[in-house]
Every structure is written in C-alpha cells, then in structure tokens.
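hey so i finally got around to running the thing on that chain from the lab meeting. sorry it took forever, my laptop kept dying and i had to restart like 3 times. anyway pasting the input first so we r on the same page abt which one it is
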Amino acid sequence: MSGGSNISDFDPSRPDSQAQIAGLLFALILIDQNGHIAEANHAAENLLGCSAKRLISKPLLEVIGPVDPRVEARLSDCDAALVARDVGIHAATSETRVNLTVSPLGGFPGWRVVTLSQIGHEESGNEEELASSLGAPSILAHEIKNPLAAIRGAGQLAARKLPLKDKKLARMITDEVDRIARLIDRMQQLGSRSTEVAAPCNPHEAIRSAVATVRAAGAGGVTIIEEFDPSLPPVLANRDALEQVLINLVSNARDAADAGARGEITVQTRFVSGLAFSAIRLGRAVRLPIEITVSDNGPGIDPAMRERVFEPFVSTKKSGQGLGLALVRKLVRDMNGSISHERDTRAGLTHFRLHLPMAKPGQE
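ok and heres what got predicted. didnt touch it at all, straight out
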C-alpha cells in the first residue's frame, strides 16, 4: 500500500519514551519483582523529596510507607493491579494524600508501573460549575446591599437620638450590617469571573506585607518565623491578590496555632524544579516552580473536612463563614497557580503550599 504513513518511520522531532515519561505531571515509578524501585521520573523525585539515584534499589514500601494495610497487601502481590484513591503516603517527611495506581507489565513477570498523583494539586474540573453556582447568589447579594445601606444609615441616625444606655443597641445594628456587607463582598468576589492582571513581583515583599498586616491585627502571642530563599526569582502574579491570599493563610495559621501553647507559624519559600507542581491551563502545562509554604503547629484540620477545606461555606471555625479558603483557591487559580494542604502527623504541623509561575526575564 502507498500513501500511508508507517508508525516505524523515524521522526527526529518526535519525543521518545524517556522524554514522554519525564514530561508527565504525575509521579511514575517502575518497580521490579522484589518490590524495589528500578526507575523514577522527575515528578516522582519532587513528590518523594529524593533524587532518582537515591531512590533506585530501595523498597517502594520503605519509601512511601506506612500505608493503608489493604494497599500494602496489594503492593506485596507482584501480579496484582490496583487503583486506590485518597491514600496517605509519607513523602519527604510529610504525609501526603495521593491517588495511586499499580499496573503489572505483561510479559515481564513481577514488574509493575506505579503512579502517584497528589490530590491537592489535581484540578477539580468544576470551576465552571462553581462560578455558575455562585453567579445567582452574587446577583442576589448586589440587590441586598442597597437595603443594607439604608438600614445602616437608620442605625446611625438612631444612635444620635437614642439615650446613652440604648446607643449600644444601635451600634450593634450598624456592626451587624457591616459584617453582612463584608460577607456579601466576599461572595461577590468569589463568584466573579474577572481576573486581575499578573505581573512580575517579589514574593518576599508580598509575604512581609501580609505578615505585617496580621501582626498589626494582633498575632495573639504566636511567633511568626520567615525562612526565605534569597535567590528566589520574581513570581508572575497579581501583587494585591497574592498579598490577600497570604493574609488569609497566615491569619488562619495564627488562629490554629493560637489554640495551643507556644504557637508558631513558619513562612518558607523555595524553588522547586520540574513539572511535578504543574497545572493545566488553557490546554497547556504551566510550570509552577515558586513555592510558598505557610505552616503552623496547631492541632490541624478535622480529618473529615480536610478534602473539603477549599469548598465554599465549609469552615472549621465556629464563627467562620467558609469563604476564606474558597476565595484563596480562586485567587490562586486566577494567577495560574496551585494551592494544597497537608498534615504532617509526625511533626505535628499543618502545611498550606502555594505554587506559582516564575516571571520570565523581560516580562512586564
């Protein structure tokens, strides 16, 4: 036959299998008949916090364990396939939640390919749904603000005319109106489809400004420690949005750490290479090498709520409205970034990790 293409034809521009594996967004590990690591891609190195050279020949369960006994049993069976969601592994000294698959290789008895994808870095795929679901409340919120303004004005007028003993009630009216207005503002911002313009900015300046704001509001005796990588390049983000994200994260960490004695918050920055922390935007991969981590030594989030903390109206605080972290996620995604959290049970720390793209030289 003529006119067709032969799949075996050599094309020097076509990525080979090694390049394809290296470019994967999730961790891929090859294990041998004995359950030892034979190969690991770049995303696996980042996830496990160890170079491929050091990972090779180590038992997989030793590297990621301890894991759920059911998962361990399946991994111990060299012929068993496995698909497991929301599995806790211990990577780079921290507990991380992942989706895990194990695929036996036909024709190579005992050899298997293991994939690990971090739940916190996966896209939920419901951003359009979220925006749509918040669209109607946002319109309703706009209509509510007009009568609220009238109520507030009436409360202020009443405060001037009421006797001193009753002025407290009038102030309560205006305070509650202000609280509702702030809540409505946050709902409108969460449901907005518009995004702020991103530009190169110094992440450390944004962090220091956010920390100063939290301290001014009262740190409650909590110690805030800064561990910055001085060589970190500019990040591509909206400065105001980034600062708002950091204020929310540091404020939440302060509230969590304040629950116990010797409350401590650490804000750390570092550069992470590779595609392990990439997100898919507009059909293309976006590298996210700038990492900002806000950690606290509080008791942590209720395990039953950990996978829902970024959802609207989900809160671990008694007086919380559950919009803070949902707004954080929206602002981060608008900047083509990624936000995740994890609980390090061994160290007793909760980490919120923010990953953002790096500004290119000459980018404005």
